[in-house]
Specification:
Strand content: 15-25%
Radius of gyration: 37 Å
Distance between the termini: 64 Å
Shape: elongated
């Protein structure tokens, strides 16, 4: 084949174009190219086969929680005796950023927030050591503080365990068996019950029977402790051996406790045993937890009592393989009879979501025939090149996608990056980015073939023409994504996987067209005969589409008249202004994550009316459960979070293809909202969809008022809350005080009467605690396994009068009633006390009727709560912590990252083009491209969130790349052929038209394939 250009001689190469030299080098070293291809294929496949596939990336925020339980203590006591001590202890922790705390009835939470530069493990050790140093200063009845950390990822798998008997004790025993057996499965880090309920032995005493028998609590407790002892008596030399002598008296079976002798009836002289005055029962702790979940049984959704089992995999384990191992182990347990009568229902499965996302990558690359036929990126690229170029060019170009993907897999393996949710999401995005350079190179080679260049010269001319611009375009796209790796905080830790994935893919998109495709093109592609009439055109115009020549004509016409250029610029500015102004209408809302038309999960967050019993709370849960069961689109549900204040039920919907239009998530949410409104004892309920991104805030507008004076705080919070209630679009306001008080019974001691009765305040408190609370008296270690022995009142006081009538025993044995030494009254106490850096605060929160009104309402509220207003309220300071503020913070960081990227791109282009104006012209096209973004969001009813901003980032890379190829080619025509600037621009538009169209068709088609996948989500959110 002729390797000369049509004008004779050899192709001239720019002396400084090292990209063209690389093309020449690889073209002349085909064996090296085959080695590179083999390395990419083998290395990529090996990496893919050995990837540890994970769910959502495990990001541990720099936060440490210190939690302390002090049963029976009020919020004020917790603040004074526990929270204050802990806060003082951690104030000198290295890297401390700020602290916040909550003191409530019986518990204290102190959150230690650290600087990003601090090692979390080191900080945890520091906190633990400082807590241990002050533990002696905490109340003796308080439990030891627990130091914990957080993670953005939850359990990898959640199973629900139930039994055909529906007996909760039997279910819990079955769950314990599952936990013990699954703990040894390879890849499993931990297996834990969703709600820990340790088995224990409860001795419920009857105060009336004890009084009749003359047995006091002290006597009963001492008897229970004293009888449960194995006592070493010493050693003796017996039979020429030194032997230990031990008295064996510890409880060996439950009957030993029931039959324990605790006294003698003074009238009958009969022995009194524990069973005569108390009931002894072994079982699980009554933790006031609603243990229920729902699953499909014989084709119907049913709700059953049960226990949740949470399984977390190790950081280096493959989540899909681990799930298979867990399933296999469960089958072995069933075969061994360990699960007879037991149902193990899968409620949450990260492995399934990960498999779906991998499937979406495969489908995006090669298409899918499941349910409906969708073309993949490789097919679309092949068809586009086949229709508009030829089949040989189509074959060469289509190889770019699998080679680029395999190269990316290999790079991820080298950097030790696991195949997690964000990486998979980024891989889907990459499919649209990696085709651009391949199409440009292959289309150019074919074009020079059509201009009668020989096979070798067509490749070299393409390398000379486009090698430098290809390098600049790829590098510019890399620069655009680099700032995503330096965003701080938890958000930054998650999105850092995007550049870690995209940048290797972009490197591959440069290497493959430079090193591999030229050699393949030389062997596969052929010269085509010019069409009739082609000789009438210039050499550069031959083979151009009619549309390309039309665009050349339009460009030439626009560049001839100054007024036409001005009119074009003005028209462009009008389009940009009109597009951007859409954001000011409020019809496109700024959110963290926009929601899809249909989401895979829904949730019900119900807040109870104050003071409900456990039975009342359970009744509310079962009514919500029934509403879910009636929804044919619900596949499973479980109680995820619950407390005395409310419960949160998480429900997964069936596959979208199994639901009709009436069972879309929005319709289900609407019906659930209506149904829950009729349930008694619900104070507030939030029913929502869960899809991409974190769950929405319960209250979108929040302000934190800081002041140590509780009176000032309450007055200010109430006034601010009332103002919020007066605003339009506000549906509910929580001012932190109204309806937040905790009912409390106060026993106010009369010091004189207490002393005359021979008692002390401490003794009265201890006796009341023994009657009202419960005490761990000893540890049972006999038949059936170990368990705590708990002593509690089996006939608790039912009203205030009963408390007044409780007997108290003095040191001299005298008995008095509580009413003899104290006044008993019911009152309302502070429900919870919150502090930030030691300063008390209260959050005033508001919910709006529609997210589209968020910005409007927030602006009106900001106009009200000025610094002058704060001063008039007497408030020390305030902090905004609502959804609007979080959105603003996230978008500010991302916006700054994008702005920094554009500046870096500009600097890079200035250095490459040796011009300040040409790169500026290229970047001007970025806002022009937005003329399609905002109208598209408006027409599709979408919001502007993180994913949309990520799309804009990709758009910046694409637009800049197009500008680079146009400008670089035009510059070559000016320098080498003496074209005027206008002629060069016109010619560049025509020559570059076909590859631009082909590239964008494949990108649009590939993204459309991904968007119309019938299963899964764009990003699998970890709600659990």
């Amino acid at each position: 084949m002729d390797n000369r250009n049509p004008n004779g001689g050899t192709v001239q190469e720019h002396p400084y174009d090292w990209n063209a030299k690389l093309v020449r080098y690889f073209l002349h070293n085909s064996r090296l190219v085959w080695v590179i291809i083999a390395a990419i294929v083998i290395g990529g496949i090996f990496a893919l086969m050995n990837f540890q596939r994970q769910g959502f990336p495990q990001v541990a925020p720099k936060i440490v929680l210190v939690q302390t339980i002090f049963p029976g203590a009020t919020a004020e006591e917790m603040e004074r005796q526990v929270t204050g001590v802990v806060e003082a202890a951690v104030k000198d922790v290295k890297g401390l950023k700020e602290t916040s705390s909550t003191s409530a009835n019986s518990f204290s939470n102190v959150i230690v927030m650290l600087d990003e530069s601090v090692s979390l493990d080191t900080a945890v050790q520091d906190v633990q050591s400082k807590i241990q140093a002050v533990q002696a200063s905490l109340p003796s009845d308080a439990e030891a503080p627990k130091v914990q950390t957080f993670s953005t990822s939850g359990p990898s798998f959640i199973f629900g365990i139930t039994h055909e008997s529906q007996d909760l004790d039997t279910i819990r025993k079955s769950a314990d068996t599952v936990v013990q057996d699954l703990s040894d499965v390879a890849g499993v880090k931990s297996v834990a019950l969703g709600a820990e309920a340790p088995e224990r032995i409860v001795i419920s005493f009857d105060p009336a029977k004890m009084a009749q028998a003359g047995v006091t609590l002290d006597v009963l407790q001492l008897a229970l402790q004293g009888a449960n002892v194995n006592f070493p008596a010493g050693t003796l030399d017996l039979d020429n051996q030194t032997q230990s002598v031990v008295t064996i008296g510890a409880y060996a079976k439950l009957e030993d406790i029931s039959n324990l002798f605790v006294g003698v009836n003074q009238k009958t002289r009969q022995p009194i045993r524990v069973q005569d005055i108390a009931e002894v029962k072994r079982g699980y702790e009554e933790d006031q937890q609603i243990d229920r979940f729902g699953y499909i049984d014989n084709g119907e959704l049913v709700g059953r009592p049960g226990v949740l089992v949470n399984i977390e995999v190790t950081s280096d384990a493959d989540v899909i393989k681990t799930k298979a191992a867990v399933d296999e182990h469960l089958e072995e347990m069933r075969a061994d009879g360990k699960l007879d009568g037991v149902t193990v229902a899968e409620l949450s499965n990260v492995a399934r979501d990960t498999e779906n996302q991998i499937g979406e990558i495969v489908n995006g690359a090669v298409g899918t025939t499941k349910n409906l036929y969708l073309l993949g990126g490789i097919q679309l690229l092949f068809i586009a090149m086949l229709l508009f170029v030829n089949w040989r060019a189509a074959v060469v170009a289509a190889l770019a996608i699998p080679l680029s993907v395999l190269f990316t897999f290999m790079a991820l393996a080298v950097t030790g990056t696991e195949l997690n949710t964000i990486v998979l999401f980024s891989m889907i995005l990459v499919l649209g980015l990696i085709v651009d350079p391949a199409i440009i190179m292959v289309e150019s080679i074919q074009r020079y073939h059509d201009l009668k260049y020989g096979a070798k010269d067509a490749v070299l001319e393409s390398g000379r023409r486009y090698g430098a611009s290809l390098f600049m375009a790829v590098l510019a796209s890399m620069i655009v994504f680099m700032p995503f790796g330096v965003v701080s905080g938890i958000f930054g830790e998650m999105i850092k996987y995007i550049p870690l994935t995209v940048i290797p893919a972009l490197i591959a998109s440069y290497i493959i067209p430079i090193a591999i495709l030229p050699m393949l093109s030389k062997w596969i592609m052929r010269m085509r005969m010019p069409k009739q009439g082609a000789q009438e055109m210039s050499a550069e115009d031959q083979g151009l589409w009619r549309a390309a020549r039309w665009f050349m004509s339009v460009s030439r016409n626009l560049l001839t008249k100054k007024w036409k250029q001005i009119a074009t610029v003005v028209g462009a500015l009008v389009l940009v202004s009109a597009s951007v102004s859409i954001m000011g209408t409020g019809k496109v809302q700024v959110v963290q994550f926009s929601k899809a038309d249909d989401n895979p999960y829904v949730s019900v967050d119900a807040r109870f009316k104050h003071g409900l019993t456990f039975a009342d709370r359970s009744a509310v849960g079962e009514q919500i459960e029934q509403l879910l069961i009636e929804e044919k689109g619900v596949a499973k549900f479980f109680y995820y979070q619950q407390s005395a204040d409310g419960l949160f039920i998480f429900a997964e919907l069936k596959d979208i293809l199994e639901r009709d239009d009436t069972q879309k998530s929005k319709e289900i949410v609407t019906r659930l909202k209506a149904g829950t409104m009729d349930i008694a004892n619900i104070d507030d309920v939030i029913v929502g969809e869960l899809g991409v991104g974190p769950p929405e805030e319960d209250y979108q507008i929040q302000v934190q008022l800081n002041d140590n004076d509780p009176v000032v705080l309450e007055k200010a919070a109430t006034e601010v809350g009332n103002h919020l209630r007066s605003l339009e679009h506000i549906t509910r306001v929580d001012d932190g005080f109204t309806g937040k008080g905790e009912s409390e019974v106060r026993v106010v001691l009369d010091r004189t009467k207490v002393q005359l009765a021979g008692l002390s305040s401490f003794e009265i408190g201890q006796q009341l605690k023994a009657v009202i609370g419960e005490t761990t008296v000893t540890k049972y270690a006999g038949e059936g396994g170990s368990a705590d022995v708990i002593l509690k009142n089996g006939a608790l006081p039912g009203n205030v009068d009963a408390i007044r009538s409780l007997p108290l025993t003095s040191r001299t044995g005298q008995t008095v009633r509580v009413s003899d030494v104290a006044t008993v009254e019911q009152t309302t106490a502070v429900g919870a006390i919150q502090r930030f850096d030691g300063l008390r605060f209260v959050s005033v929160r508001a919910r709006i009727d529609d997210s589209k009104n968020l910005v409007t309402v927030q602006q009106k509220f900001n106009e009200y709560l000025t610094d002058d207003k704060l001063a008039s309220l007497g408030i020390d300071s305030r902090d905004s912590r609502g959804e609007f503020d979080e959105i603003a913070k996230s978008f500010t960081q991302l916006g700054m990252a994008l702005a920094a990227a554009i500046i870096l791109v500009y600097i890079f282009l200035v250095l490459q083009f040796k011009s300040f104006t040409q790169p500026l012209v290229m970047l001007v096209t970025v806002p022009l491209s937005l003329t399609g973004v905002f109208p598209a969001l408006l027409l599709t009813g979408s919001d502007l969130g993180f994913l949309e901003l990520l799309g804009v980032t990709i758009l910046v890379g694409i637009v800049v790349s197009v500008g680079i190829f146009l400008m670089d080619y035009a510059n070559q025509l000016v320098k080498e052929r003496g074209y005027t600037a206008k002629e060069a621009i016109t010619q560049a538009v025509g020559v570059r038209f076909r590859p631009i169209v082909l590239t964008k068709l494949v990108v649009i088609g590939g993204q459309d394939t991904w968007c119309r996948q019938p299963h899964g989500e764009l990003v699998s959110e970890q709600h659990i």
